[in-house]
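Lab notebook, bench 4. Continuing the backlog of folding jobs that were queued last week. Each job is logged with the same field layout so the records can be merged later without manual cleanup. Today's entry covers Ribosylnicotinamide kinase, a 230-residue chain. Filled in by technician R.K.

JOB TYPE: sequence-to-structure
TARGET: Ribosylnicotinamide kinase
LENGTH: 230
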Amino acid sequence: MEKPQVVTIGISGPSCSGKTTLALLLKKLLENVITINLDEFYKPDSQIPKDETTGLANWESPEALDFDSLNKAINRARSDPLSLLAEPHKLLQNNHHGSDLLSKQDFAHLFDSLDALKDIVFIIVEGFLLFYDEKVCANLDTMFFCNASRQVLKQRRESRPGYVTLEGYWVDPPGYFDQLVWPQFLKWNQHILDETKRDPRILVISTDATSAQDMASFAVHTIEHQHTKK
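JOB STATUS: finished
OUTPUT FIELD FOLLOWS
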């Protein structure tokens, strides 16, 4: 069988910005989808770096992640997408928000608009530090960066019970957002937050008050515009 056209979509942004929700919405809307979640590429719990100031495990640092293995997974998906499509469905890790946020009418409208893309295999790569690694960015065709205000992100993060890790389960200790999550987000994403340094391929989606319908619609129309054969 002839290898299909493959398009890789990267979705990044701070913790609780809506990136997993967007990934799940696109997974439902697009015909052939392979999902890769950066959460699957955390190092073992014992190798997570400690923050020098607080002494807490720093899950927000690039040093906590195995980007080499992530890139290998992306390359494998790009080179042999059909075999991965045939594998059993795998849920995205640490999904705290469902994607059942579109009305049947909105879903049908967006789904029908993507008919021209039905033969493309989409690889959706999602994760909070996805655009930190240059090799990962070079592997992405379309890039969305979900963002929200500090207040909204903090409220969402502190409402979550915890996170599945490679070796167990992590629950944020009191003050973790202010001490690590927010400062680390600012530290490692300056090349995106500063518009003068941002890769022009990265499209920012503010999710403070953006509905699922608007978020999905923006992403769908972007993908349609970029990847429909003229």
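OBSERVATION: The chain has one domain: 6-225.
SIGNED: R.K.
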